[in-house]
Amino acid sequence: xxxxxxxxxxxxxxxxxxxxxxxxxxxxxxxxxxxxxxxxxxxxxxxxxxxxxxxxxxxxxxxxxxxxxxxxxxxxxxxxxxxxxxxxxxxxxxxxxxxxxxxxxxxxxxxxxxxxxxxxxxxxxxxxxxxxxxxxxxxxxxxxxxxxxxxxxxxxxxxxxxxxxxxxxxxxxxxxxxxxxxxxxxxxxxxxxxxxxxxxxxxxxxxxxxxxxxxxxxxxxxxxxxxxxxxxxxxxxxxxxxxxxxxxxxxxxxxxxxxxxxxxxxxxxxxxxxxxxxxxxxxxxxxxxxxxxxxxxxxxxxxxxxxxxxxxxxxxxxxxxxxxxxxxxxxxxxxxxxxxxxxxxxxxxxxxxxxxxxxxxxx
Length: 363
Ligand code: KG4
Ligand code: ZN
What we know:
Helices cover 41% and strands 20% of the residues.
């Protein structure tokens, strides 16, 4: 292992910490970060490819991969510089190994492997979802287990986080992810890309009751989600409307419908969580959609009503970033888990591989 850093204080006490660099390239953000194992983020750089994908109204995998390749070296160097460390100071390197767009994942993994090989430090291939799932332990002093609503552009799941590498999926989307639905509806409303934040802004001041949109899966058994019907309902409304589109009202109605569904499913998951994981006391939200203020308020109210703590990472750590990947590396290395340089990037990589075999605690 490389050299950990030492902080000396006036008393004969010495605090050691280890430095991990993280790399994230699984979608349309190239990111690099340096994190200490004592939870301090020394640097976190995120380079968005928004402008490159905007003309196409969504992420183009080929463009994303080329852009990651073009920027990754500079970004890693930038993260080290702003953390005021050099490659020689690093004690470990972590990169997203999947799931995600494979071209981008390969770029990040190859970069991390090269650093690990040259510096002779451990390499961790992090599951991107695990990065989101553990972020709250970087920002808060939270013990396992906790209930996690993971809502991003590619995933919509409710999980019990039992420990590092131990996830029990209680529910998942049957079709679109929540962020994907935000993005598609934003596109229909002409709000551009990326859609989630644009739709949230458009919904301010809109009337959420003006359009009676469906609440797919609400009241159903289990904790699964479905959002494609909601998206279709918005399309149908748009096709029958005459005159200017009431964008704010439609955006507010859509956002309220998504939030209602997420609340209903989360409420059911909370009941299971309380029954089967009695030591747990926190509801956590993570992933890009967790940046949505309307949703955070509703989840906070739900947690309060259930007498649970509600924890959400700051906005910059909800959307894709590399600090969460470096942190997942810290957590994995702490339990003695790392990967060989023969690790193969994984376009698909479920957090709970048993979930599809029906090992569920749903009612
Ligand atoms: O976690 P993330 O950055 O990338 C994935 O792993 O997918 O999530 C991106 C998703 C996008 O669909 C984006 O539209 C959505 O998160 N998002 C939001 C907001 N900010 C980002 N959705 C709703 N409201 C927001 N404020
Ligand atoms: Zn993500």
